Each structure stands twice: as C-alpha cells, then as structure tokens.
Amino acid sequence: MQKKYQIFISSTFLDLKSERQAAQKAILNLGHIPAGMEMFPASNTEQLTYIYKIIDDCDYYVLIIGGRYGSLSETGLSYTEMEFDYAKKRGIPILVFLHPDVAKIEFGKVDTEADQRQKLHDFRSKASSGRIVKDWEDAKGLEAAIITSLTSAFTEEPQTGWRRDTEEPDEKSLRKISNLQSLSDAHRRAAESAQNKLRGFEDLDRAEIDIKFLGNDIPHVLQFSGRRILKQILPLLRNGLTKIDLDKSLAELIEHTTNDMMGIECPIEVSRSTLEDVFMFLEAFDIATGDTYEPWKLKEEKKDLMKAVFIPNSSLNPSSNYISDDEIPF
C-alpha cells in the first residue's frame, strides 16, 4: 500500500500566494498531503506554537524564499526563519527553493528597507548551507521543481508517512489521527483568535493592504501596513473621507514612496478596487463608518486613535495631503 506523506509548506504569505498554491498543487498531484497555515500566516507566539505542532506531524518541509524576509517576532527573527529552525532541529528533511535573483522579482514584492534586505540575504545563505537548493522564477517552474525534488526525496530519504493498514497503529500514527480529527476545530479557534487580535490597535502593523495603481500607464502594486495607511488618511477621517479624498491622499503617498525608493516621478492613478479595499479595512477594524453616498468618518469611540497613531494638526504640513513618517512618531 502506497504511503501518504504530509509535507509542510513554509514561506512568507501575501507576496507568495500563487507560489504556495503551486506548491500545494505539486504535492497533491504526487498523491500526498500539503500542510501550511493557509487560513492565517504565523504572526504571533500562540500561533507559532500551533504551527510547531503541525510541523511535528509532517514528513518533509518545503521552504520557498522570494524577495521578502517576513514579519519579525520578538526575537528579531522572521516567523518563516523560526519555522525553518524548528524543522531543522526536529531533523525533518528540508527542501529549499530560492528565487535566484531578487532584483528581478516584481516591484512591491521585495523588501525595501536595508535591514530587512540584509536579514533576507543572511537567511538565504543559512537555508542554502549544507543542502541542495533548487531555483525558481515563476509559479509554474516552482511546481515542476517541487515535484522533481520531492520524488527524489521520497526515494533517498523515505519517512514514516501514512498507510492504510490492518495492523494496530503505533503511537505516532495515533497522534497524527488525533491531530487530524481536531484540525478543523483548531483552525477555527486559531482563526477566531487571530481575527480578534487583529482588531486591536497593536496589530495594525500586521494588516497589509495592496495599493494597486498605474504609473506611466504601467500597473504596479505597493504594499503598506494598516498603520501606515491610517497615518495617511486619519486627518481626513475627522471631517469626512470621500473616494475623491482617498484617491488624492493615496496618490500622494505613492508618489512620495516611489520617488524615495526609486527616484521616479510620474502621474499616479489609483485603482478603484484599492479604494474599496481601504474602506473595507476601515470597516473591518471598526475604525470609521460610511458608505457610497456618505463620507467615512472616524467613530466617536475611536478618538483614542488620534493619540495612538497621530499627533496634533499644527505639526503637519497644511499644503500637502502627504503625511510623512517623521511627522508622526511611533
């Protein structure tokens, strides 16, 4: 009877969604079981502990590295690197897939801060040390590389796996069965916990919003934290934020960001879907109320946000809708 292997997929989350789907497809096509936190990425210690339990029950560990290092834990390491360290400590066979040239990765899916880029460089070196690494440049190529690598691993490093059998299951198999039976409930509880925490102001940094726009008629995507977006639009929320106001404010944020990062100045056209995404963010965090016909306004009970993420109006530049990081201390 053929074994079924459980294979953990580790990577940063939002920037590698299509690549994670390709990895899942590759594993399923081989007839095995993909595992990973698709319901929510690792973002705090409680969830990381749960992820460790999932890794414990996996036979192989697949690491995909693109252009981002990932969210940092209190230790200063990314959650992805902590997953890697744990899998290595547990002696689980690790297969690493690296994008060969970060400079060629789509703009908006790479780290822009020097310290994050250095951490990514160090992690790439660490993950590559002492093992064969496969390159990938797109989701299709990644899928093929994973199929080839896993097929070899199954032969060269066979693991316990899962097997339908009439024999009495051993202790490890019983534990796997028990974990599978409780997986749905555990996912639901963890997702509910994550959602509740994301509603707190302290988690605004982990809420990421893709800002889609045209620059010189070329589509681009930039990703900002919920806190950074809120910094930009909070002055307007006091008196009422319309789509026109939001469009102008985001355009100025994009112009300053692209100019600072790349030295490029060009007309900006923010996509309509992005405007809707920002309004959905305000609603999801219960920050403001509004609709298609009424301007969005900060909720009265959320006035403490002014203290948490904003400073007095007198310190702002009255001639610009752009709010710089220097003007708002964090």
Whole-number tally of structural domains: 2
Weakly predicted, low-confidence segments = 39-43, 190-202, 311-330
**From the helix content, strand content and strand pairing, which structural class follows?**
alpha/beta
Largest sheet: 5 strands, parallel
The amount of beta strand, in percent, is 5-15%
Distance between the termini: 58 Å
CATH superfamily descriptor of the largest domain: Toll/interleukin-1 receptor homology (TIR) domain
Mean pLDDT: 78
Based on CA atoms alone, the radius of gyration comes out at 23 Å
What is the CATH-assigned architecture of the largest domain?
3-Layer(aba) Sandwich
Roughly how much helix do the residues carry, as a percent range?
Answer: 40-55%
Could you please say which CATH topology of the largest domain applies here? Rossmann fold
Q: Which CATH class of the largest domain?
A: Alpha Beta
Count of DSSP helices?
A: 10
Shape designation: elongated
Helix-strand topology string: EHEHEHEHEHHEEHHEHEEH
Number of strands: 10
Description:
α1 (17-29) crosses α5 (139-156), α2 packs parallel to α3 (79-89) and α7 (226-239) packs antiparallel against α8. The strands form three sheets. This protein has a five-stranded parallel sheet, sandwiched between helices. The protein has two domains: 6-197, 3-Layer(aba) Sandwich (Rossmann fold), CATH 3.40.50.10140; 203-315, Arc Repressor Mutant, subunit A. The model is unreliable at 39-43, 190-202 and 311-330 (pLDDT under 50). Helices cover 45% and strands 14% of the residues. The protein has ten helices and ten strands. It is of the alpha/beta class. α4 (114-128) links the parallel β4 (94-98) and β5 (133-135).
